[in-house]
C-alpha cells in the first residue's frame, strides 16, 4: 500500500498543498501536506477512501538534517490546511499525554496486569497529570518533586 501511495504521489499532481515552516525546541521543520484523490482503479480496493494525504517533513534536529515522508488514507475529503491541523493535533495528544504516561509514569512497564486495575491506575495518572497542569507546572517531574516535598503535611491535614 505504501509503495502504491508513493507511486501515485510521485506521478500525480496534488489537489492542494499546505506548506509551513516552524522553529521550536531547537528544530527547524518545513512541513508540506499534500492532498491527492484516490484513483478510480483503487476505489474498489480502498473502500470508502476519498483521498490520501502525503506529509513531508524536512528540517534539522540538533543541527543534523532529516527528511521524512508519511501517508494517511482518509474517508473524507478536506483541505490540506484542515488535514495539517488535525495531524499536528494528533501528535500534540501523543506527546503531551501518551508519552508522559509511558515515560514519566512508567505505564508501559506497570506491574498491574488485571484489566480493571490497570484502567483505574491509568485514569488516576491522567487526573494527576491534569491537576499538575492546572497548578501551572510545565514539567511533570518538577510537579512530582513539589508534591513529594509537601506529602509530610498530609497526616497533619487529615487530623
What would your notes on this structure say?
The structure is a single chain. This protein has 159 residues and is an alpha+beta fold. It is built from six helices and four strands; from the N terminus they run αββαββαααα. It is elongated and about 65 Å long.
Notable characteristics:
159 residues; alpha+beta; four-stranded antiparallel beta sheet; 6 helices; 26% strand; elongated
Spans of at least 5 consecutive residues with low confidence: none
Mean pLDDT: 83
Q: Give the percentage of residues in beta strands.
A: 25-35%
Could you say which overall geometry the principal axes of the C-alpha atoms support?
elongated
Rg from alpha-carbon coordinates? 22 Å
Distance between the termini: 64 Å
Helix content bin: 40-55%
In total, the number of strands is 4
Q: How many separate helices? A: 6
- Widest sheet: strand ordering: 1-2-3-4
Q: What structural category arises from helix and sheet content? A: alpha+beta
Order of helices and strands: HEEHEEHHHH
Sheet of most strands: 4 strands, antiparallel
Topology, element by element:
Layout: H1 2-11, E1 16-24, E2 27-37, H2 40-43, E3 51-61, E4 64-74, H3 80-104, H4 115-134, H5 140-150, H6 154-158
Antiparallel strand pairs: 1-2, 2-3, 3-4
Briefly characterize the structure.
The protein is of the alpha+beta class. The chain is built from six helices and four strands.
Amino acid at each position: 500500500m505504501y509503495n502504491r501511495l508513493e507511486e501515485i504521489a510521485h506521478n500525480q499532481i496534488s489537489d492542494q498543498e499546505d506548506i509551513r515552516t516552524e522553529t521550536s525546541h531547537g528544530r527547524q521543520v518545513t512541513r508540506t501536506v499534500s492532498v491527492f484523490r484516490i484513483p478510480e482503479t483503487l476505489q474498489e480496493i480502498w473502500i470508502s477512501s476519498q483521498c490520501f494525504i502525503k506529509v513531508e517533513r524536512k528540517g534539522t534536529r540538533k543541527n543534523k538534517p532529516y527528511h521524512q515522508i508519511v501517508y494517511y488514507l482518509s474517508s473524507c475529503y478536506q483541505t490540506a490546511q484542515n488535514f495539517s491541523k488535525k495531524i499536528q493535533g494528533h501528535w500534540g495528544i501523543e506527546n503531551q499525554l501518551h508519552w508522559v504516561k509511558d515515560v514519566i509514569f512508567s505505564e508501559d512497564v506497570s506491574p498491574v496486569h488485571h484489566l480493571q486495575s490497570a484502567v483505574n491506575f491509568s485514569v488516576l495518572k491522567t487526573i494527576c497529570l491534569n491537576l499538575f497542569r492546572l497548578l501551572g507546572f510545565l514539567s511533570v517531574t518538577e510537579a512530582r518533586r513539589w508534591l513529594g516535598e509537601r506529602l509530610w503535611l498530609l497526616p497533619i491535614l487529615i487530623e
